[in-house]
């Protein structure tokens, strides 16, 4: 019995070690590629002020699609903020996804909307549209409000795609706060590329605790709550390290649903957002890329590392768990739908690197981690723990987790340095020290539960309650 | 199951007897800790360095703002002496020189006429062009692009041979800056650089060129038709577009053959340009071929009917639109509503009926 247990322990230790080593190597390369990409981006953009281009009438028109569900509390202000977007030709389409509150009435009243007979065709099937509204007031002529039956975010975005006029669309969350030149920066990859660009994404930043005036961030502050602060680090890692690296090797599989720009004809050809998954943003990009590859068309996906969009992150553990549960289900569903791509050389970097990485290190990692904990409990039960080995393993993982966060913090400091107060560095370092102990277990558990819920057939988004972006007074 | 602290401490006391896994783990931990400490030091160092540099930068900027304002607008300012003094005391480090260049460029952007010329002279008196030319000769693409940018912003003439090779550089940024250099410094024929351009123009570059042509170039407008037979498709499209933007009606006969071009994008650009130029025979050339064209060109033909044609032209198209071409049908119906505003209700009802049939 003892011998068998010893053998099992040794084999399992080896497996966990190999898995951990592969993850570390992956992250090391990711950091390296990100650093090269960020350096390159900074060099490309540090001498020319391109905001003068915003005066140009030659820039292509963009349709901004913003779905809204029960956003009555802030919808008027959010739309006002969108209407002030700095871009020469923009159409704003708000899709009221069957809200149960007074969102629509507030919009009708505030923006002097009236029902119009707009001709459209459902290139992508959607739930029934109840009405399309435009403003009588010329000041709001760029605004279109679509009222439709509830069908979820993907269905609302598909409706917007059917209705909107321009061939470049920008899908955003209605409560996002955009930088003044966000549209210009996001459209640049579409225009400055010899290949056809099908999508471009930007970096999302955490707006909690920031000072906001007239729908613009005027002072970046570090969130006061630990749960929000740790997500600042998470977003650094995800965007400045993860996506920058994937962008460098043309292996990007995800453009955040909160802020992404797409080529409408390609989106329609790919079939629009998938309403049967909760990870519609990732699934759409993967499907578009897969389609282009299968058609053998040269194409590109752009990624802009500048902080362009600020959003509120969950401030309660319950909402956070619900969000991460959904993200896990979305990832798993997307990987399942596109399982054909996995290790398929036909899809090049997407098949040989991106999808395997997402499969093994994004989807599988929390499950393996959970398995590791169960294994630990099993050994504990049979008194088979070598505490020294355990301690060194634990410290190795812990130091790596801390190192990874510190690397992300370094990238932020090297690139955009948004958190200017020196005390923020120390607070973020402190947060990085606590994260593996206090935050990560919750995230892992949410992912495990996400997989469990997926097996149970759960398709719901879950409630994403927002605390609302408060407006702290700016320090004089 | 309890941890025996004594055993644990004993275990740590003799490293050579440790199991291999322990040794590896300890090495990994040490390595990670070392990297972490390095990075934290780097973060703090970077922050200190940036703060220090920003302070120096701010100081130099303030000095320059005072200096430039006096230089440009104070008649009692002893220019020669003050320039010497400034050069001697405040243009010694690379940072000081870079900040000065940036500040002069910033002032130059906001000023026109004599003040702008005075700044260009000051740039040369400070001998900043020497610094820029050194950058130009560096092998780094970003230094080169930055140098050409400064030269073109201040319209400083340098030998053509120095910039021309960069027109076909591998980096977009370098190519774009050299294009703008030739455009901004040109007295005539600002797009002559297109003759030697071998790399396609991106839309972004085209927008920049067009903006610069409109806002910076002051000489006679060139005949854009000289590039409509260029080997690069993007250059052909661009010149066709510019013919329309600059209302070069005399080039209409040169554009018409492009309606039969085998490249779709050139064909589309030609239709758009001829439409903008109000070429009356355009519809007679387009409508008979409507059925043979692809969707994008068919949409352009419909737009042309909306702008140059009438309801009769539109009706000729109706039987040629396939039942499942909804994009075309919607465009058609919108134009129909435009031509027959009094029948909007009826068209809407027809549309609804067609939709029901489709369902």
Descriptive notes:
Chain A is α/β, with parallel strands linked by helices and 476 residues long. Chain A has one domain (1-48, 176-476). Chain A is 51% helix and 16% strand. Chain A has helices spanning 2-45, 75-83, 103-110, 153-163, 182-191, 226-248, 264-270, 280-294, 317-337, 348-381, 387-415, 422-438, 440-455, and strands at 62-68, 90-97, 113-116, 129-135, 143-148, 168-172, 177-178, 196-206, 211-213, 216-219, 259-263, 299-311. In chain A, the strands form two sheets. A ten-stranded mixed sheet of chain A has the order 3-4-5-2-1-6-11-8-12-7, with helices on both faces. A two-stranded antiparallel sheet of chain A has the order 9-10. In chain A, strand 1, helix 2 (75-83) and strand 2 (90-97) form a beta-alpha-beta unit. The mean pLDDT of chain A is 91. The longest helix of chain B has 54 residues, at 20-73. Chain B has a domain at 280-359. Chain B has helices at residues 5-13, 20-73, 79-90, 94-110, 113-125, 128-137, 141-153, 160-163, 172-185, 203-215, 233-245, 252-255, 264-276, 282-286, 295-308, 311-317, 326-339, 344-358. Chain B contains 18 helices and no strands. Chain B has 359 residues and is mainly alpha-helical. At the A-B interface, helix 1, helix 5, helix 11 and helix 12 of A face helix 1, helix 2, helix 7, helix 10 and helix 17 of B.
